[in-house]
Amino acid sequence: MARISASVYTSHVPAMGVAMDLGKTSEPYWQPVFRGYEASRAWMKANPPDVIFLVYNDHANAFSLELIPTFAIGCAAEFKPADEGWGARPVPVVKGHPEFAAHIAQSVIQDDFDLTIVNRMDVDHGLTVPLSMLCGKVDAWPCPVIPFAVNVVQYPVPSGRRCYALGRAIRRAVASFDEPLNVHVWGTGGMSHQLQGPRAGLINREFDNAFLDRLIADPAGLAQMPHVDYVREAGSEGIELVMWLIARGAMDEAPPRVVHRFYHVPASNTAVGHLVLENA
Ligand code: DHB
Ligand code: FE
Fold it and tell me: pTM above 0.85?
Protein backbone atom coordinates (compact mmCIF):
# COMPACT_ATOMS: atom_id res chain seq x y z
CA MET A 1 0.00 0.00 0.00
CA ALA A 2 1.18 3.52 -0.74
CA ARG A 3 1.40 5.86 2.24
CA ILE A 4 1.62 9.60 2.74
CA SER A 5 4.48 10.17 5.18
CA ALA A 6 4.72 13.95 5.06
CA SER A 7 3.45 17.21 3.64
CA VAL A 8 5.39 20.26 2.57
CA TYR A 9 4.05 23.80 2.23
CA THR A 10 5.86 26.63 0.51
CA SER A 11 5.48 29.89 -1.37
CA HIS A 12 6.48 29.73 -5.04
CA VAL A 13 7.67 33.31 -5.66
CA PRO A 14 9.19 33.28 -9.18
CA ALA A 15 12.03 35.59 -8.09
CA MET A 16 13.28 32.81 -5.78
CA GLY A 17 13.66 30.59 -8.83
CA VAL A 18 15.44 33.37 -10.70
CA ALA A 19 17.80 33.89 -7.73
CA MET A 20 18.74 30.21 -7.94
CA ASP A 21 19.05 30.16 -11.72
CA LEU A 22 21.33 33.23 -11.68
CA GLY A 23 23.41 32.08 -8.69
CA LYS A 24 22.31 34.93 -6.39
CA THR A 25 21.22 32.95 -3.36
CA SER A 26 24.05 34.13 -1.12
CA GLU A 27 23.46 37.82 -1.86
CA PRO A 28 22.32 39.76 1.25
CA TYR A 29 18.74 40.10 -0.03
CA TRP A 30 18.34 36.38 -0.71
CA GLN A 31 20.52 34.78 1.94
CA PRO A 32 17.86 34.91 4.73
CA VAL A 33 15.28 33.39 2.37
CA PHE A 34 17.41 30.43 1.34
CA ARG A 35 18.72 29.87 4.86
CA GLY A 36 15.09 29.15 5.79
CA TYR A 37 15.08 26.16 3.41
CA GLU A 38 18.41 24.58 4.41
CA ALA A 39 16.86 22.34 7.09
CA SER A 40 14.20 21.19 4.62
CA ARG A 41 16.73 20.33 1.93
CA ALA A 42 18.61 18.17 4.47
CA TRP A 43 15.31 16.61 5.55
CA MET A 44 14.43 15.83 1.89
CA LYS A 45 17.76 14.05 1.45
CA ALA A 46 17.31 12.09 4.68
CA ASN A 47 13.66 11.23 3.94
CA PRO A 48 13.45 10.87 0.17
CA PRO A 49 9.91 10.29 -1.13
CA ASP A 50 9.14 7.83 -3.94
CA VAL A 51 6.58 10.24 -5.40
CA ILE A 52 5.59 13.86 -4.77
CA PHE A 53 1.94 14.78 -5.27
CA LEU A 54 2.41 18.49 -5.89
CA VAL A 55 -0.57 20.81 -5.52
CA TYR A 56 0.06 24.14 -7.23
CA ASN A 57 -1.56 26.67 -9.48
CA ASP A 58 -0.86 27.46 -13.08
CA HIS A 59 -0.50 31.20 -13.81
CA ALA A 60 -2.08 31.34 -17.29
CA ASN A 61 0.82 29.38 -18.80
CA ALA A 62 -0.63 25.90 -19.36
CA PHE A 63 -4.22 27.12 -19.19
CA SER A 64 -5.78 30.41 -20.25
CA LEU A 65 -9.17 32.07 -20.14
CA GLU A 66 -10.16 29.64 -22.91
CA LEU A 67 -10.16 26.69 -20.55
CA ILE A 68 -10.17 26.87 -16.75
CA PRO A 69 -10.20 23.55 -14.88
CA THR A 70 -10.88 23.93 -11.16
CA PHE A 71 -8.84 20.80 -10.34
CA ALA A 72 -6.54 19.17 -12.91
CA ILE A 73 -4.37 16.09 -12.41
CA GLY A 74 -1.27 15.58 -14.54
CA CYS A 75 -1.26 11.99 -15.83
CA ALA A 76 1.56 12.35 -18.39
CA ALA A 77 4.97 10.66 -18.29
CA GLU A 78 6.70 14.04 -18.27
CA PHE A 79 6.04 17.74 -17.97
CA LYS A 80 8.33 20.39 -19.44
CA PRO A 81 9.13 23.63 -17.60
CA ALA A 82 6.96 26.33 -19.17
CA ASP A 83 8.23 29.33 -21.09
CA GLU A 84 6.64 32.14 -19.07
CA GLY A 85 7.76 34.84 -21.46
CA TRP A 86 11.56 34.88 -21.12
CA GLY A 87 12.44 31.26 -21.90
CA ALA A 88 11.91 28.16 -19.80
CA ARG A 89 13.75 27.92 -16.45
CA PRO A 90 16.98 25.89 -16.77
CA VAL A 91 15.64 23.13 -14.53
CA PRO A 92 15.06 19.42 -15.24
CA VAL A 93 12.01 18.08 -16.99
CA VAL A 94 9.51 16.80 -14.43
CA LYS A 95 8.94 13.04 -14.67
CA GLY A 96 5.38 12.00 -13.85
CA HIS A 97 3.90 8.74 -12.61
CA PRO A 98 1.11 7.92 -15.08
CA GLU A 99 0.01 4.70 -13.39
CA PHE A 100 -0.28 6.20 -9.91
CA ALA A 101 -1.84 9.40 -11.25
CA ALA A 102 -4.46 7.38 -13.14
CA HIS A 103 -5.23 5.43 -9.97
CA ILE A 104 -5.65 8.64 -7.95
CA ALA A 105 -7.86 10.12 -10.68
CA GLN A 106 -10.04 6.98 -10.69
CA SER A 107 -10.38 6.95 -6.90
CA VAL A 108 -10.91 10.69 -6.38
CA ILE A 109 -13.44 11.02 -9.22
CA GLN A 110 -15.39 8.02 -7.94
CA ASP A 111 -15.19 9.77 -4.55
CA ASP A 112 -17.25 12.59 -6.14
CA PHE A 113 -14.58 15.20 -6.97
CA ASP A 114 -14.58 16.26 -10.60
CA LEU A 115 -10.98 16.30 -11.81
CA THR A 116 -9.77 17.26 -15.26
CA ILE A 117 -7.37 14.70 -16.70
CA VAL A 118 -4.32 16.35 -18.27
CA ASN A 119 -2.16 14.27 -20.60
CA ARG A 120 0.03 17.09 -21.88
CA MET A 121 1.00 20.16 -19.90
CA ASP A 122 3.95 22.46 -19.28
CA VAL A 123 4.53 23.38 -15.63
CA ASP A 124 5.25 26.94 -14.54
CA HIS A 125 6.95 28.55 -11.51
CA GLY A 126 4.07 27.38 -9.31
CA LEU A 127 5.52 23.86 -9.56
CA THR A 128 9.19 24.31 -10.43
CA VAL A 129 10.06 26.90 -7.76
CA PRO A 130 8.93 24.69 -4.85
CA LEU A 131 10.97 21.81 -6.32
CA SER A 132 14.01 24.09 -6.60
CA MET A 133 13.60 25.38 -3.05
CA LEU A 134 13.42 21.89 -1.55
CA CYS A 135 15.82 20.02 -3.87
CA GLY A 136 18.37 22.69 -4.81
CA LYS A 137 20.08 22.93 -8.18
CA VAL A 138 20.01 19.39 -9.56
CA ASP A 139 20.47 17.55 -12.85
CA ALA A 140 17.30 15.54 -12.26
CA TRP A 141 14.47 15.89 -9.74
CA PRO A 142 14.82 13.23 -7.04
CA CYS A 143 11.60 11.36 -7.84
CA PRO A 144 8.49 11.36 -10.03
CA VAL A 145 6.04 14.21 -9.44
CA ILE A 146 2.28 14.22 -10.03
CA PRO A 147 1.25 17.81 -10.80
CA PHE A 148 -2.14 18.78 -9.42
CA ALA A 149 -3.26 22.19 -10.66
CA VAL A 150 -5.90 24.23 -8.84
CA ASN A 151 -7.61 27.29 -10.29
CA VAL A 152 -6.98 30.21 -7.94
CA VAL A 153 -6.46 32.69 -10.77
CA GLN A 154 -9.90 33.17 -12.35
CA TYR A 155 -13.09 33.41 -10.31
CA PRO A 156 -14.91 31.37 -9.15
CA VAL A 157 -12.22 29.62 -7.11
CA PRO A 158 -12.78 26.53 -4.93
CA SER A 159 -13.43 27.00 -1.22
CA GLY A 160 -11.00 26.02 1.51
CA ARG A 161 -13.63 23.58 2.73
CA ARG A 162 -13.70 21.80 -0.62
CA CYS A 163 -9.91 21.79 -0.84
CA TYR A 164 -9.63 20.22 2.61
CA ALA A 165 -12.21 17.53 1.74
CA LEU A 166 -10.39 16.88 -1.53
CA GLY A 167 -7.19 16.30 0.45
CA ARG A 168 -8.98 13.59 2.38
CA ALA A 169 -10.11 11.97 -0.87
CA ILE A 170 -6.49 12.06 -2.08
CA ARG A 171 -5.44 10.35 1.16
CA ARG A 172 -7.96 7.55 0.51
CA ALA A 173 -6.77 7.27 -3.09
CA VAL A 174 -3.13 6.94 -2.06
CA ALA A 175 -3.97 4.37 0.62
CA SER A 176 -5.72 2.17 -1.95
CA PHE A 177 -2.76 2.02 -4.38
CA ASP A 178 -1.22 -1.40 -4.35
CA GLU A 179 2.47 -0.47 -4.28
CA PRO A 180 4.52 0.40 -1.20
CA LEU A 181 5.24 4.00 -2.23
CA ASN A 182 6.37 6.66 0.21
CA VAL A 183 4.38 9.72 -0.86
CA HIS A 184 4.77 13.41 -0.06
CA VAL A 185 1.89 15.78 -0.66
CA TRP A 186 2.94 19.38 -1.21
CA GLY A 187 0.75 22.48 -0.97
CA THR A 188 2.23 25.55 -2.62
CA GLY A 189 1.55 29.25 -3.23
CA GLY A 190 0.95 32.11 -0.83
CA MET A 191 1.51 33.57 1.63
CA SER A 192 -0.02 37.05 1.77
CA HIS A 193 0.56 38.96 -1.44
CA GLN A 194 -1.17 41.17 -3.93
CA LEU A 195 0.54 41.76 -7.24
CA GLN A 196 -1.68 44.45 -8.74
CA GLY A 197 -4.17 47.22 -8.00
CA PRO A 198 -4.22 49.82 -5.22
CA ARG A 199 -3.25 47.26 -2.55
CA ALA A 200 -0.22 45.90 -4.49
CA GLY A 201 2.51 44.89 -2.06
CA LEU A 202 0.09 43.99 0.73
CA ILE A 203 1.68 41.80 3.43
CA ASN A 204 -0.17 40.64 6.55
CA ARG A 205 2.25 38.96 8.98
CA GLU A 206 -0.38 38.48 11.65
CA PHE A 207 -2.72 36.68 9.27
CA ASP A 208 0.07 34.55 7.80
CA ASN A 209 1.35 33.36 11.18
CA ALA A 210 -2.15 32.65 12.45
CA PHE A 211 -2.74 30.68 9.24
CA LEU A 212 0.38 28.58 9.92
CA ASP A 213 -0.72 28.01 13.55
CA ARG A 214 -4.19 26.88 12.49
CA LEU A 215 -2.95 24.81 9.55
CA ILE A 216 -0.93 22.78 12.06
CA ALA A 217 -3.40 22.61 14.95
CA ASP A 218 -6.91 23.31 13.59
CA PRO A 219 -7.07 22.55 9.86
CA ALA A 220 -10.77 21.60 9.93
CA GLY A 221 -11.62 24.94 11.53
CA LEU A 222 -9.33 26.82 9.16
CA ALA A 223 -11.02 25.12 6.21
CA GLN A 224 -14.26 26.93 7.10
CA MET A 225 -12.72 30.34 6.32
CA PRO A 226 -14.52 31.79 3.26
CA HIS A 227 -12.51 32.77 0.20
CA VAL A 228 -13.30 36.45 0.64
CA ASP A 229 -11.40 36.45 3.95
CA TYR A 230 -8.25 35.25 2.16
CA VAL A 231 -8.56 38.07 -0.33
CA ARG A 232 -9.36 40.72 2.28
CA GLU A 233 -6.65 39.67 4.74
CA ALA A 234 -3.95 38.15 2.53
CA GLY A 235 -4.43 40.07 -0.73
CA SER A 236 -5.80 38.99 -4.09
CA GLU A 237 -3.06 36.38 -4.62
CA GLY A 238 -3.22 35.29 -0.98
CA ILE A 239 -6.08 33.06 -2.16
CA GLU A 240 -3.33 30.67 -3.31
CA LEU A 241 -3.24 29.54 0.34
CA VAL A 242 -6.40 27.42 -0.11
CA MET A 243 -4.11 24.92 -1.86
CA TRP A 244 -2.29 24.29 1.42
CA LEU A 245 -5.54 22.83 2.78
CA ILE A 246 -5.46 20.09 0.12
CA ALA A 247 -2.07 18.92 1.36
CA ARG A 248 -3.16 19.27 5.00
CA GLY A 249 -6.35 17.30 4.34
CA ALA A 250 -4.24 14.47 2.94
CA MET A 251 -2.48 14.05 6.31
CA ASP A 252 -3.57 11.62 9.03
CA GLU A 253 -6.13 12.72 11.64
CA ALA A 254 -3.57 12.48 14.47
CA PRO A 255 -1.63 15.72 15.11
CA PRO A 256 1.41 15.94 12.80
CA ARG A 257 5.01 16.44 13.84
CA VAL A 258 6.29 19.89 12.89
CA VAL A 259 9.67 19.25 11.24
CA HIS A 260 10.31 22.82 10.12
CA ARG A 261 8.56 26.18 10.10
CA PHE A 262 9.80 29.35 8.42
CA TYR A 263 8.41 32.79 7.66
CA HIS A 264 10.15 35.70 5.97
CA VAL A 265 9.27 39.08 4.47
CA PRO A 266 9.94 40.03 1.74
CA ALA A 267 10.79 38.07 -1.37
CA SER A 268 9.79 40.17 -4.32
CA ASN A 269 6.50 41.74 -3.11
CA THR A 270 5.56 38.66 -1.17
CA ALA A 271 5.63 37.03 2.24
CA VAL A 272 7.38 33.65 2.14
CA GLY A 273 5.97 30.86 4.29
CA HIS A 274 7.23 27.31 4.59
CA LEU A 275 6.24 24.32 6.69
CA VAL A 276 7.19 20.65 6.77
CA LEU A 277 4.86 18.25 8.60
CA GLU A 278 5.32 14.54 9.17
CA ASN A 279 2.64 12.05 9.99
CA ALA A 280 3.21 10.72 13.49
C1 DHB B 1 4.85 36.56 -7.71
C2 DHB B 1 4.15 35.66 -8.50
C3 DHB B 1 3.46 34.62 -7.92
O4 DHB B 1 2.80 33.70 -8.67
C5 DHB B 1 3.42 34.47 -6.55
O6 DHB B 1 2.69 33.46 -6.05
C7 DHB B 1 4.15 35.35 -5.75
C8 DHB B 1 4.84 36.39 -6.33
C9 DHB B 1 5.61 37.66 -8.33
O10 DHB B 1 5.48 37.86 -9.55
O11 DHB B 1 6.36 38.34 -7.62
FE1 FE C 1 1.56 32.44 -7.59
Answer: yes
